[in-house]
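Message: Study each token:
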Amino acid sequence: MVEALQIIGWAMIINAVIQFFLIKNGGAEKTVRNLMIYASLVVLVATPFI
């Protein structure tokens, strides 16, 4: 079973990878797009648990 600190560590790694791809090539200026992508990822990940 995965412990709480391992879950936090994996979440930080996955978030860093997502941030890298969102910010690459001027993506920092596209805040609405980034928020929509994050919102859709939250919905996709949270749906099986709800």
Q: What stands out?
A: The radius of gyration is 13 Å. Residues 39 and 45 are 10 Å apart (CA to CA). The helical segments are 4-23, 31-46. The mean pLDDT is 88.
